[in-house]
Amino acid sequence: MSQSQNVENLKNEIVNKLEQLNKRKFPANVIADIFRPFQIAGRGRTGLINAVKGLNKGDLVNDLTEINLSLTKILDKHVSFANKKVFLFKLDFENIRNIDEQLKQQAIKMKVFEGKFDHTQALDSNAVLAKAEELDSGTIYYFKSERNYYKTVPENLRDGDDFSLEYPDAVVVGISKKLRFDLNAFDFIKIDYKHNVVILGIDLISVFDRALSNVKIDEYKTLIKRFGLLDQLNSLNLRKIIPKMEVESSETGRVVNHDFSTGKGGYTYLGRSGKKSNNMRDDKFFQEGAKNQVLDFFGIDREYNVSENERPIISLGLTEAEFRDSTNNPVHYAILDYLESYNGLQYCIDKIIMHLQSE
User: Cys staple from 186: which of 46, 79, 91, 301, with CB 3.0 to 4.6 Å?
Assistant: First the structure.
């Protein structure tokens, strides 16, 4: 391969990764920091992509190779852990082993064990086994598919635009266009022999179109039932662990947000920390208001100190409408954010199971 062709291939790989990271709403400042040592900059996300396409000076092969490796590292981590909606299924050992063996056979056949993520654009919404990795508690299997989300942006009215025939009784004061963003989704099924559970993790739950994510959840549940020879599949109810997470020692982390109601629903508070480092348990308003009150916590976001460089947040709970309907409504999933490693993922699973098993 000629050097010029190698440079073009590297540019294409970098542009694809930038587009994927941009669509995944990855922080732009972190991306800019990767390019800064090479004196590559652009105005906004699109400007940076155009700057990469236009590069023609310097040690391009070495510089682009280093940039590509850095982008691959952060994109791999993001698709592995970012903003996952997780369901936990408690199953008999034999059922878990059946699921694991079926997935393992596919992974070996497709040669994805401990391989690399393929970040080329998926062609359709069919989930394909993309990566598998052996962990201490069991294997994690990643599936790749195309998924999308929408954004509506305003459009300027132009001279000559005439809507009088379509809307004769209205004055048109603005128009908008609806944009669709297509990108790769990486969901996972994790086998966990430590707790005899199977964990389903759905990618970027706060970004992707909710209906599309729900369709994919049903598809994975069907697959788990088929591989596990199961007639039904019910995720664990996490409702009872919310108040337990609320009163954990501050040494384990902090309460970022919490939702609660006073006795008999007389007062409902949806707490939101105004500062990144605040613990809602230390809030003066909360401490004063909680005196002589029995609080029913129905939602929580709690940050955990896994390590000096990893502080994931576990979020779960009912909406206020669900709580008003019945305080006993189930909570079937948690959302994991700011994970950095498989160790952090296992910590979160361990924490959830610990609270479920405690009295």
Answer: 79
**Beta strand ranges found along the chain (DSSP E):** 84-90, 128-135, 138-155, 175-192, 197-202, 253-261, 268-272, 296-304, 313-317, 334-337
The per-residue pLDDT for 275 is 45
Sign of the C-alpha dihedral, residues 134, 135, 137, 139? Answer: negative
Tokens in use for 181? 């963003």
Cα gap 119→16, rounded to integer Å:
8
Three-state SS for 94?
helix
Mean pLDDT across 109-137 = 94
Whole-number Å distance between alpha carbons of 119 and 71: 11
Q: Quote the CA–CA distance of 162 and 168 in Å, as a whole number.
A: 10
Tens-place pLDDT, residues 305-346: 999 999 999 999 998 889 888 888 999 999 999 999 999 999
- Please tell me the number of Cα atoms within 13 Å of 199 on its side-chain side: 29
Contact 53, 11 (CB under 8 A): yes
Instruction: Identify residue 39 by its one-letter amino acid code.
Output: Q
Structure tokens at 7: 């440079």
Q: Which amino acid is residue 211, in one-letter code? A: A
Q: 126-160 pLDDT, tens per residue?
A: 999 999 999 999 999 999 999 999 999 988 777 66
Q: Are 191 and 198 in contact (CB under 8 A)?
A: yes
Residue 19 has pLDDT above 50, yes or no: yes
3-state percent breakdown (helix, strand, coil) of the chain, nearest 5: 40, 25, 35
